Amino acid sequence: MHPITWTYIRKFKQSFETTGRLYAAFTTFKKDHRLGITFNGEKACSLDLSQLHPTLILRIAHGLEKEEGLITGLNADPYAMPEFNHLDRSIHKTLINACFNAKSLDSAYRALNNAYWYWDLFDNEYQCVIYKTRKKREGEKCFPGNQAEAKRYIEAFKFRHPQLADYVCTGIGLLLQKFDSDFILNVIKIATSAGIPALPVHDEVVFPLSKQQQMQEIISEAFKWTFADAGNFGSINVKLSIGHTAQITNALDL
Known about the structure:
The chain is α+β, with helices and mostly antiparallel strands. About 35% of the residues lie in helices and about 20% in strands. It folds into 2 domains: about 120 residues, Alpha-Beta Plaits (2-Layer Sandwich), CATH 3.30.70; about 80 residues, no CATH class. Strand 5 and strand 6 form a beta hairpin. Helix 3 runs antiparallel to helix 4, helix 4 crosses helix 5 and helix 7 crosses helix 8.
């Protein structure tokens, strides 16, 4: 790749206190393309943290590793929405993060009302797009019942996930992006000091396959370094991806 492809800039929204994510041409690549690169001829793989934003809310606001409650239990998936099980989990992830990003119920309703899903034949996975302009909509509408169904979705999420409920429609998503970008920067700093090339894609890092064990240790250390007391207990889930099909979730002890 030309060096401009993996030359990053850090972008902030509103102020230097929010977002700050890293962007490059590489971050726009489809996952299959990202994992199709090589490092001096060596095959690539990636690690990314599962459920990062809900995990940060639980850890920073409540001091919890996982959700607790009669409905959720101790091992709940924050993106589980059985009341809407006709939608894939990856679609729920986009919808729920949109609710964290929204600054009011009305803006959340508008976002969900403009959410469409489709099956991506190239990546072999579901995609969810929330349209913000009059651009032609592609795929199926997530909530054919419009605002009433979107409202029922938000209420169902808050009921099922009480530890996360107070942060819906607060605009906290921007701050969570700041946190995850600070974490990724620390991952890159440690990896660079260890001589490991690593290309970030938001909360995912692409690196040489032979460095998998070292990168798991680096991610664990960077998480503790970034989040201090909130990052120094329990474990975090990371997903390993190799090529197009292999996705394995492992727990890293902190």
